[in-house]
Amino acid sequence: MSLSSAFFAIIRRDLILALRRRSEIANPLFFFVLVITLFPLGVGAKPHLLQAIAPGIIWVSALLAAMLSLDSLFRSDFDDGSLEQMLLSPHPVSILILGKVFAHWLVTGLPLLLIAPLLAVFLGMPNESLSVLLLTLLLGTPVLSLIGAIGVALTVGLRRGGMILSLLVLPLYVPVLIFASNAVEMAAGGLPISAQINILVAMLLMALVLAPWPTAAALKMSMS
Amino acid sequence: MLFSNLDFTLHSRQVLLLEGKNGSGKTSLLRILCGFREPDTGEVRWCGEVIDSAQYRTDMAYVGHLDGIKKELTVLENLTVSLALAQKGAHTIQEALARVQLADFDDVPAQALSAGQKRRLSLARLLITRNCLWILDEPFTALDKQGIALIEHLMAEHCDQGGMIVLSSHHDLHVPTVDLQRIRLA
User: Fold this and answer.
1) Does position A24 have pLDDT exceeding 80, yes or no?
2) Which residues in B lie closer than 8 A to residue A1 (C-beta atoms)?
3) Mean pLDDT score of chain A, rounded to an integer?
4) Do A97 and B43 touch, CB atoms closer than 8 A?
5) Contacts A–B by Cβ distance under 8 A
6) Residues from chain A contacting residue B37 (CB–CB below 8 Å)
7) What is the per-residue pLDDT across B7-45, written as a single tens digit (0 to 9) for each?
8) Does the beta-carbon distance from B72 to A80 stay under 8 Å?
9) CA–CA min distance A159, chain B (Å)
10) For A10, which residue in chain B has the nearest alpha carbon?
11) What is the gyration radius of the CA atoms in chain A, in angstroms?
């Protein structure tokens, strides 16, 4: 079969699997909503403070939700041998991995994007920064999935890789966090944000092109 | 060290049976042949070339200890994905399922299958994809007598068509028609 049919077969398979084990979609989403709803309770009735830190809250929660969902990317495939079969495919493994990461983003990243406007309103975020928040999430969350994939591929062979995974991956998430939350903040103040958005686009393109290779190499290493 | 000075060549229509007690390195050797592990020294060649190539991965198929079956997917969905990842072989999915006696199971989720049926499903993968080298790690585990006879029959047929097989097994192999080599790992 051709490479494109293999690519789409992987996406289709992972989406069917996600629909059949719904907790995979629900867990990161619930986590995201829960963390954000806890902030107003912790901070107290200070709408201006909440409004000021809203971009940071939403982005940090998105980051942690992405971290939480990462383990499911390769874990079950590793445990049941599907990953072995994928690595033995004559097709380039990096493309197949791209398919897996895309399906994973559709299942764990996209729901965050859909629920974010509601949570932004909840935190009292001004309307003008709402669209920028969505744009940064659209550009940023796939980067989180792509970078995270490298970390998961390195730790999937370890029994308790969770802690190492967060130590590996979180520092790499910091640039996305800085530029994304900064863009939302600037937009709220009516300032230009094209620089931050351009950098986020550049990060996304670089991650798309560069991340699948180390992921493939790391998976091969975890397999041996 | 598990083994050293190991040298063998496998030709078309031949079967190589790896024997040896638990922990003697049968699985390690098979994983080296698959390219999952690098040998400490030496190399594995396929048609004269080192095995790290897409051509080798097209020509070989591996069934290991792990079934490579997604238990949430149906039998048909599992095989459809396997087919998409490889090149189309001689048999259609329906034919292959009939050959491994799972013909009426195509809409059954794989988690409802018994261990032996799962094994037969993972072996059906060998039939639907184009390959000439089968690498099988303990293919008879969980199979009943009938299942073992069935797989032996499929193996003999594969060799008749010019294929070759490397397998590890604790069972003795009853395929009188094929050219059988044995390697005993100490």
Assistant:
1) no
2) 83-88
3) 92
4) no
5) 85
6) 224
7) 888 888 999 999 888 888 889 999 999 988 888 888 889
8) no
9) 17
10) B81
11) 18
3-class SS string, chain A: CCHHHHHHHHHHHHHHHHHHCCHHHHHHHHHHHHHHHHHHHHHCCCHHHHHHHHHHHHHHHHHHHHHHHHHHHCHHHHHHCHHHHHHCCCCCHHHHHHHHHHHHHHHHCHHHHHHHHHHHHHCCCCHHHHHHHHHHHHHHHHHHHHHHHHHHHHHCCCCCCHHHHHHHHHHHHHHHHHHHHHHHHHHHCCCCCHHHHHHHHHHHHHHHHHCHHHHHHHHHHHHC
Instruction: Give the pLDDT confidence of B96-105 residue by residue, as tens digits.
Output: 999 888 888 8
Q: Distance (Å, rounded) from C-alpha A150 to C-alpha A211?
A: 7
Tens digit of pLDDT for each residue in A57-66? 999 999 999 9
Domain B14-184 has CATH 3.40.50.300: yes
d(CA A142, CA A203): 10
Say yes or no: A156 contacts chain B, CB-CB below 8 A: no
When pLDDT is cut at 50, 70 and 90, the band that residue A77 belongs to is: very high
Whether A155 and A165 have beta carbons less than 8 Å apart is answered as yes
Both tokens of A83, joined, read: 């990953």
Contact yes or no for B73 and A13 at CB 8 A: yes
- Select the residue of B31, B60, B70 nearest A80 (Cβ to Cβ): B70
Residue A127, amino acid: N
The ipTM is: 0.90
DSSP B97-120: HHHTT-GGGTTSBGGGS-HHHHHH
Using CA coordinates, name the residue in chain A closest to B38.
Answer: A224
What dihedral do alpha carbons B116, B122, B128, B130 form, nearest 10°? Answer: -130
Domain residue spans of chain B: 14-184
Block residue for tokens 């050219």? B179
Residue in B36, B80, B86 nearest the CB of A89: B86
Q: At B50, phi and psi to the nearest 5?
A: -60, 140
Distance (Å) of CA B119 to CA A33, A79, B75, B102:
42, 16, 12, 11
* Torsion angle of C-alpha atoms A17, A21, A22, A26, degrees rounded to 10: -100
Q: CA A135, CA A147: separation in Å to the nearest integer? A: 19
3-class secondary-structure state, position B6: coil
Query: A90 CB near a chain B CB, below 8 Å?
Result: yes
Q: Which residues of B touch A20 (CB under 8 A)?
A: 72-73
